[in-house]
Amino acid sequence: MKIGLGFHQKLLTKQNFRFARQMGATHVVAHLTDYHTHPMDLELHRKMYSYENLKKLKSEMNEEGLEFHAIENFCPAHWHDVLLDGPKKQEQLEYLKKIIQSMGEVGIPILGYNFSIAGVWGLTEKNVARGKAKTAVFHTPQETPIPNGTIWNISYDQLAEAGEFPPITHKQLWQRLEYFLSELLPVAEDAGVIMAAHPDDPPLETLRGHARLVYKPSLYQKLLDIVPSPNNRLEFCLGTIQEMTEGDLYDTIEQYANKIGYIHFRNVRGKVPQYEEVFLDEGDIDMIKALKLLKKHNYQGVLIPDHTPSTDCDAPWHAGMAFALGYMRAAINSLNHEA
Ligand SMILES: [Mn+2]
To answer: Where does the UniProt annotation place the signal sequence (predicted)?
Structure first.
């Protein structure tokens, strides 16, 4: 098993690549644009996903001894009509294919995606992790409808008419996913790129009135079966799976270990509709047990910390990640010694 670190766009710097290497990471997962700040800037997003930029980023990572392992998420501006079955759907799908082809040419093996309308929503920050560390919590928020022109809490169309768009059903959502995968997976196969699906976070059957895709472990199988391909895999988020009310995390690892693209290695206390993200060693998941099961199934891929509580110091994000990476490295080394 290999250790990676996930970076948001602003953190994709030489200094941070060194930090990752110093903490024992060997792989990078990158979010390529800051779509919260520039939701409408399609040109900027396209530039970030271009062959030239991917190649440049990869060589910067390689210079610091890291591999460019995965891109996590498309920008809402790239594919809102794929999710919403809108008029630009086919045009947007063609652009997503181009991204996958560029990834193949540059040699970036995995694309993580989240096929979701409401996205990650309803989380707030509270000082409830150990030692009053600030962290993301989901505490049964009041669900509000989704305004027109919005996807993933991002307004992609400021000219959209006022009002809300009608909620979509599970059947519609799965049909859209099927079309998306049937268009993209053949391209991904040719390019040698794996597509890895993140489950819905928070994992609720519906959110803000809209159907969610993978909110219980058995729906992972449905996703794998709907368009069978060796390149159809999972972005396996331990925290999100633990937040699900159905199924058991350890059984889920055993079931899907050989279908994982890469792993979000994080811990949580509670389940929907009430949970708190916590440090790796204080949540409901026995992280060592999880690692042992992955090892049992010969999982050879990458694990990244995903999120972690912020720490009270001058570098809250870095310190939180350093703690997570040190924990992961010690745990994996110790399992390897046992073997
Ligand atoms: Mn995750």
So the answer is: none
